[in-house]
């Protein structure tokens, strides 16, 4: 928000059978790096390819095959760190995280435990005009993704697709600063927005390119503040991790269910087991997957096949110089330069493509009017037809042309909506359409006055009523607009009617 002031939202409070409880949430977000090739091989990262077609020898763990770091993926992680106001570590190293799984051919995952590439940062999560949560980022590390096990193609067998194996992931680990389900979803949404602006992750959750592991615990009111004062986690409850969430809605539902599950156990005198759980959206509940592993369970050790990364500050500075204007900066500028409300600016900057579209429409025009047309008319129509801004049949130049015609007085707001419908469905230049179809607004005061005189002469009884009750003058305005096919200048009609009726 930059210069926009804000206050922190209140924590979510859940009433138990015996007392009130508060939520404490931390997230580990796995974001697929936008790159054409994988983290340690030249294999393609293209989504939707035939199973096992994007697999290099190193991805398949063939004997003697060694990983080679992809410099572009490293740059994308640095770029993300800079976008989250995080510290870039000049020294980082890769480790082996050992575990067996059918879609992990090597028997270990190359990750970063001891020396991550990005250190502490922060992200401001908007929760409404003037309300935001500042969430601290603990670290971002690079790691390779595993493949995909498929269990629904045969009743007796499972299949493995290694296309994702070795794809670069950024794991963004937050501090337990999030205090409610809506905040958690908004936090993931804000990370997605920032990375899409940066071009470091496309944020496509349906394809698995953005997934979240959600850590949930509950505590008594006041306990969280003690944790923040002391840094002592003993003030907080035992957390459970909900794995692989790929939907904002499911994240909220899973947190709500898990919190109530934990409250019921604690109030019943039980103890929360630290464990990994899965969310079942069909049943609306979480279920135990396995006991929560610690770092020593994976027998981490430095990867012997990869040298540590030593990053020069000049290289980081070059990346920083290439960063685009980020959402918070753009939102603050839209409020300042175009006179928009914070809400409208938030809507327009939600997606980088939408912000660019609006700015092109607003250039040299009234910002508030441009925002109104983009949000209410264009976005409303696109949403109704389930289209994205990139699929808009109305270009910024066409929508700007409609606004110009309104500003010049050539068309009224009502005619403008009819014109928008024509441009949306048929295309064409707005000014040429207005000329060709005779849609230009009547601004000739003499013609408008003649129309008003005709309506007044034909309705003497209504004239007397209007003189007694001035609010009835609107009836005459409506009749004149109807008689002129909606083309009369509404302002002129109102003024002339008021004058004629005294």
What does the model show?
With 502 residues, the protein is of the alpha+beta class. Helices cover 39% and strands 19% of the residues. It contains 16 helices and 16 strands. It has helices at residues 71-83, 181-198, 223-230, 248-267, 313-321, 327-338, 342-349, 352-362, 367-384, 396-408, 413-426, 430-436, 445-458, 460-468, 473-483, 490-500; strands at residues 13-15, 20-32, 91-92, 95-98, 108-111, 121-128, 131-144, 148-150, 159-161, 168-174, 210-219, 240-245, 275-280, 285-291, 301-302, 309-310. The strands form four sheets. Strands 1, 2, 6, 7, 10, 11, 12, 13 and 14 form a nine-stranded mixed β-sheet that branches. A three-stranded antiparallel β-sheet has the order 5-4-15, with no helix packed on it. Strand 12, helix 4 and strand 13 form a beta-alpha-beta unit. Helix 6 (327-338) packs across helix 7 (342-349) and helix 13 packs across helix 15 (473-483). The two termini are 51 Å apart. The mean pLDDT is 92.
The largest sheet is: 9 strands, mixed
Strand content: 15-25%
Give the number of helices. 16
Helix content: 25-40%
Structural class: alpha+beta
Unreliable parts? none
Mean residue pLDDT:
92
Shape assignment: elongated
What is the number of E strands?
16
Instruction: Give the CA-CA distance, first to last residue.
Output: 51 Å
**What radius of gyration results from the CA coordinates?**
30 Å
